[in-house]
Amino acid sequence: MIERIREYLERAFAHAPQTAKVLELKEELFANLVDKYQDQLNNGASEEEAYNVVIGGIGDISDLIASMEEPRDVDAKRRRAAITAVAVALYILSPFLFLVGEELFHLEMLGMFLFFGCIAVATAMLIYVHMTKPETNPEETMVEDFKKWRRQSARSEAAQGSLRSAFWLIVVVIYFGVSFYFGIWGYSWLIFIIGAAIDRLVSGLWHLKEDGDE
């Protein structure tokens, strides 16, 4: 019966472009269908009943294939990418602005204001990028559930990657800021060890939360 599921997908994807993304999508969808088929069997359904339920819940695969062929919201993605690039640049520039305020104008408070101001603005920009990603309200079919799962997984990975990048940029900024300000280069490297511990802790909590939501 599992082979029938495979044959159904092969027919459904027969006219789809044989790109790496589409082939990967087909394999992921097949694995998802097999899992649901096994769930039906475990719940007492016969093989034929389980097959009919799984196939009947697939929905329109053509929309799913089309979404792989034509990326949407290209301009919005480019805009978010540009904002992210500016935010990263602000993180990198923040220690230099601190030095400009302190060394050039001899105003320590100005340097600190520029330093933390850049970090605050850059962090706000990254939060804005993450929060403005579009949400959809798809139909309740298996394909739509699968599309939603793929979107959520991709967004989760992207959000985690962005936050970790921002975190380590902040760690680097703090390292240079503390080292320059206090002149403790021999000990300030411990900041990276503390940062690594925090990174692992937050990553573990992130995965625990995702497991709890599933």
UniProtKB/TrEMBL annotation:
Organism field: Gehongia tenuis
Keyword Transmembrane helix: yes
Key words, A-Z: Membrane, Transmembrane, Transmembrane helix
Superkingdom: Bacteria
InterPro entries xref list: MFS_trans_sf (IPR036259), Perm_prefix_1 (IPR047928)
SUPFAM superfamilies in the record: MFS general substrate transporter
Record-given protein name: Uncharacterized protein
Membrane spanning residue stretches: 81-100, 112-129, 165-183
Key word Membrane present: yes
